[in-house]
Write a structure and sequence with these properties.
Layout: E1 2-11, E2 23-31, H1 43-53, H2 61-64, E3 66-72, E4 75-80, H3 95-111, E5 119-129, E6 140-149, E7 153-161, E8 167-178
Antiparallel strand pairs: 1-2, 3-4, 4-6, 5-8, 6-7, 7-8
Length: 184
């Protein structure tokens, strides 16, 4: 187990000497070093185990309030709850929040196709935002589907819809596939 502590010494209160005030923020995150499954078990096995245990798919899921909700070979789905903490100054959910969830859904869809010992990384992704989203209690659903899976690369596409089914964003990703490491 490890703990990460992030402390920013900021406070949004005026100071007596006229300097800008700052907000104090402290955050603690605890993650287990043990994963429910590993890449040695193949890609889809990892996601099925994550769904079974309810463990976060990645550490970023916790602070951004989203989780894996479905996984099959070549597809994944994440559900997110974009609260007011993710709003930009205009009062709508920041596009970066939607980009992270959409990128996760698309790249994890590629991950579900990996064989034992294979690895991958995203080389690029595009996100097209189609409408603003107000922070609220309703979830957003991001789904990713593999379009092409080759020996050394894969592409996937994805969509995010709100709780009424309206399209919020769509995008594509390209991932490079790493061959299994040879045993010495």
């Amino acid at each position: 187990m490890y703990q990460r502590r992030h402390a920013a010494r900021r406070r949004y209160v005026g100071t007596e000497d006229g300097r800008p005030a700052v907000l104090k923020r402290e955050e603690t995150m605890t993650m287990s070093d043990e994963r429910p499954a590993s890449r040695e078990n193949g890609g889809l096995a990892l996601f099925r185990e994550l769904l079974r245990t309810g463990a976060p798919a990645a550490p970023i899921c916790m602070p951004l309030n989203f989780q894996l909700s479905a996984a099959e070979h070549g597809s994944t789905e994440f559900t997110g709850w974009p609260g007011p903490q993710f709003a930009n100054p205009g009062g709508v959910v920041h596009g970066g929040y939607l980009a992270v969830i959409l990128s996760s859904a698309m790249s994890c869809a590629v991950h579900t196709t990996l064989d034992e010992g294979e690895g991958y990384t995203t080389t690029n992704f595009t996100v097209n935002l189609t409408r603003p989203l107000k922070p609220g209690p309703g979830p957003v659903i991001a789904s990713g589907v593999v379009v092409h899976r080759g020996r050394q690369g894969a592409t996937a596409e994805g969509r995010i819809v709100d709780d009424t089914g309206k399209l919020l964003a769509h995008g594509t990703t390209t991932c490079v596939i790493f061959a299994p490491r040879k045993q010495d």
